[in-house]
Amino acid sequence: MKTVLAVDDELSVREAYRLILSDKYRVLQAEDGPAALKVLGETHIDLVLLDMVMPSMSGLEVLDEIAKIDRDIPVIMVTAVKSVSSAVDAIKRGAREYVIKPFDVDELAHKVDQTLADHQKDCELTLLREAELQGFESIVGNSPALMQALSMAKRAMQVDSTVLITGESGTGKDLIARAIHTGGARANKAFVAVACCAIPQQLVESELFGHEKGSFTGATEKRIGKMQVADRGTLFLDEIGEMPLEAQSKLLRVLQDGRFYPVGSTKVIEVDVRFVCATNRNLREAITQNIFREDLYYRVNVLNIETPPLRRRKDDIPSLVNFFIAKQRLRVNAKVKRFAPDAMNVMSRYDWPGNVRELQNIVERILVMNMTVEEIRAEHLNGIVMPFQATEEAAASTPAASLNEFEGLTLEEATRRVERHMITRALEDANYVQSRAAEALGTTRRILKYKMDQLGLDQEPNAAKEAS
Q1: 406-467 — its CATH code?
Q2: Mean pLDDT throughout 15-34?
Q3: What does the alpha-carbon distance between residue 99 and residue 85 come to, in Å, rounded to a whole number?
């Protein structure tokens, strides 16, 4: 059970936090800043709910001290309506979110859940934390493919042009984005990351540009968008290919003149933001499918950096394995010190479809399953890693599928038949939960829905349950 520290000088507020969150979290309380810092120094805390105005130390002062203890602890600032601007300042200084008093019970619980989930995802996506803090120097590997990507990234670091980072999932696109920011002229300003694929379609504009209170159903308070938080810093739009077309149009205007209107507002906001975008999709193909704007593509694709898949930089695998051993062995209490040559050979032969992220997770699994040995040998990898050659041999021994059913069909008709079969089967296997089916097919829920509409596939009644 994760632990939440509630910091507020009012006992009634702290008790409210406890009642709202105690079903899912262990809730500790502190009546002021010094008490909170004492708890943080003695106990592992997963999230802090921090009041902005308190005696002895202000919320911003406490926030700065928390960063000295552990910069990775997510903090949600709690503020009165009159101090919203201070909350925005707090986010620029490292807070993850803010809540306005008096807060809605469901909204508070949702923000705590979402902030912890986002923090967990950040930890999983950040494969080499040291590279985030120190720039390019600590990125592991020296293969030609990686060096080419880093060379282009270092050029991007020296200018303020918009960057598009392309590559498969798990290749470290977010890592490159952070390194560009860390080494650039905006390093002392905010780096704001937005995962476009993780935001519900109807809330993308609100998340990016903010909204006014009452501008739509559920808008119970004014919200400052990520675009404004990133002013004078860097906005990282991860998986920009998943952004809805309407939000793309509004983003294009910001790229053109640095101005936008929050949802429901008539007041224009001007910002100075450096954009770094990333995608694992073929945006040119998305343009032909009418799900990505061509004019936006040319705006974001000023400087292009391709992160190579791990199968194109296999010379880096031994260095990465050793790095992850050193990084993880103490955390999982394993005695493993090295991989034997035969085990490293197996690792190097595998195709790594999940790239560096998969490699990191596999190394951790190997350490956990072999905690008492010092040297990992090939037999320790049975059932965990299958060499690429073995998969090729298995594929070669499998009879080819009959093509008789496609005779007489045009290429378009055959393609539609294959797509219909694959999508239907994936939906059935996923019990018509579209997000799961999309994941199994290696695509996104939005593109899956587009294909279903195109093919005339109906949504099962129980599929609506997965809307959130």
Answers
A1: 1.10.10.60
A2: 94
A3: 12
C-alpha span between 198 and 193 (Å, rounded) = 12
Residue 29 in contact with residue 6, Cβ under 8 Å?
yes
Which residues, at least 6 apart from 372, have a Cβ–Cβ distance to it below 8 Å? 335
**CA-to-CA separations, 379 to 15, 77, 275, 345, 360, in angstroms, rounded:** 54, 51, 47, 12, 19
- Fold topology of 129-308: Rossmann fold (3.40.50)
- Please write the tens of the pLDDT for every residue from 167-179: 999 998 998 999 9
Domain ranges across the chain? 3-113, 129-308, 311-395, 406-467
Which region holds residue 181: left if phi is over 0, alpha if psi is between -120 and 50, else beta?
alpha
Superfamily of domain 3-113: Response regulator (3.40.50.2300)
Choice among 107-116, 303-312, 360-369, 429-438 with the minimum mean pLDDT: 429-438
| Sheet arrangement for strand 47-51 | 26-30, 3-7, 47-51, 75-80, 97-101
**Cβ(438)–Cβ(445) below 8 Å:** yes
Q: Cα–Cα distances in Å, from 3 out to 20, 74, 115?
A: 14, 12, 13
- Give the whole-angstrom CA distance, residue 250 versus residue 298: 15
Which one, of 303, 54, 345, 342, lies nearest residue 155 by Cα?
303
pLDDT digits (tens, 9 = 90+) for 270-281: 999 999 999 999
Q: Compute CA distances 442 → 280, 282, 375, 420, whole Å.
A: 11, 13, 35, 15
Q: Please indicate whether the domains covering 129-308 and 311-395 agree at the CATH topology level.
A: no
Q: Is the peptide bond before 102 cis (omega within 30 degrees of 0)?
A: yes
Per residue in 282-331, pLDDT (tens digit) is: 999 999 999 999 999 999 999 999 999 999 999 999 999 999 999 888 88
CA distances 178 to 33, 83, 126, 324, Å, are: 31, 30, 10, 20
CATH of domain 311-395: 1.10.8.60
pLDDT in tens, 243-265: 999 899 999 999 999 999 999 99
